[in-house]
# Entry
Amino acid sequence: MITANQAHLRSWIPVPEHSDFPIQNIPFGIIKLEGKSPRVATRIGDSVIDLFELYKLGYFESLTFDAMDFDASFLNSLMKKGKLAVRELRNSISSLFQSDNSLLRDKMEVHGSFLYSLDSVEMLLPIQIGDYTDFYSSKEHATNVGVMFRDPANALLPNWLWIPVGYHGRASSVVVSGTPFHRPKGQIKPNDDEDPIFSASRQIDFELEMGFVTFDGKALGDSISIAEADDYIFGLCLFNDWSARDIQKWEYVPLGPFLAKNFVSTMSAWIVTLDALQPFRVESPIQSPEVLAYLAGSGKDSYDINLQVAIATESNEETEICQSNFKYMYWTMAQQLAHHTVNGCNVRVGDLMGSGTISGPTEGSYGSMLELAWKGTKPLTLADGSQRRFILDGDTVVMRGYCQNASIRIGFGEVKGKLLPAK
Ligand code: CA
# Structure
């Protein structure tokens, strides 16, 4: 049973108004403190809590975790203990920090050993990602891309409404929020009637996505049914699947994206558990044609997560350019996972699944520059008056996401990345 989600709970740790991290969140991440090894942490308000220190103080003794699960460079070892164990851990953390629980609250002499302000810690990549799969599950995005690059009359390919289309991406180049990267180089074909050239990409784009991270799945050969899917999802992050559109356009036929996508992808530092998001579960989109039986979900497998994208220029001036929502996705995470494993493909602890670009129905809700500036034909004007068709050197793309109902707000913080000039 999830006790950590109760809306009336308050923490003895201060939580600023509009914080993404009230006591109902309890996300997981990996922190680096001066002179200490990386360790598992959570966050309440703007305070970071070192869970390894709490473990050493004996507060998780009744749980099934070991020191190595918290004294770790990644969350994988902790996740390996499975859904119910992590749920109990989250419940225990919640209990320890509730305002009416004096156990830890009044033990002021130990607070310094585990409690840190956010700006005094470095956030590391939280997951040792085994495999990264990227889906293409927004109908609006797939339609927009089809209209631009193929045929407006047949924008969606025939399989799209039947299959949560995806491809196997690259795990080695997934980085944590805040990591800058260089403009990639490769083959591009600026003019249709001329040969390709080798060049720095001229069309760097972001893709507004959510990622989900899995617990250990089943053995090779077995499938995770759609009814079981939630039991295998640890949590979600914000995810920017950076793309080089000119490289993509030339290389993607017939096997799909390759070097246009694998130069870098950025994930947010805190993983918000699927448990924490349960109050924000909403009805999934009506699907037509009716999906095959193995993809038939509960009808309420979508999540209402507000998403925003902003571009910050070198002067740190931010312009919001997109507002979307995770609930716009046509295919749900449960459907993606059921489809991914229906052939017996084994999912392992720490696998990352990208949703695909999350575009909504209106122009301001498109989740990529490709769509927002419509292939460069409708440049965006930023607050400083400059225009963008794609992302320029020195630009930082910032994505934010949060859920909000009448009583609580739970969020992901932000994922950001800065584009540096080509090497
Ligand atoms: Ca993508």
